[in-house]
Specification:
Structural class: mainly alpha
Order of helices and strands: HHHHHHH
Shape: flat
Largest sheet: none
Oligomer: single chain
Radius of gyration: 29 Å
Amino acid sequence: MGTVVRLPPIVEPPKTRKCSHPGSEACVEVRVKEAWKRVKYQLGDQAFRNCGFGAMGERVLKLWTAEEKKKLADIEKLIPQSKSSDEDFMKVVLEQFSSERTTDLAKYYYNVFLPRRLASLNRTEATTSIDVNPDDEGNNQDDDNKVHRSEEKSKVSGSSSKRSRK
């Protein structure tokens, strides 16, 4: 026969989540942690580590000392915030850190720098793309008047839709 392998039961996420501010960073962080724990439980510790899940996301920061984190944060601030300047970050950090940290720098770039930068760009674009003109609010009167005028014209000309159907 063979060896029977019993997998842990699949843990489904709760249907309702209690969060005081849905969509906020804190709620997203809680959901990510829950999902991370669920995957770790389902795969088991060894498979989880072998797949590299332990060094994903903000957990990559654990690879760095406080001094190195500060240096990385300072470099992040030097890089202009635009979509085209992201590759500049790798050029700068590769010059600042030893070549033996290249793999860790790549992990930092993809798991920390890029997600933070994209989140920041998304927030910036969201706030700049909403151009609300206070003069436009409540000025639907012109539209209402046009509708009203067209109804009056149809009554005067006798081209009512009710008459044309008969």
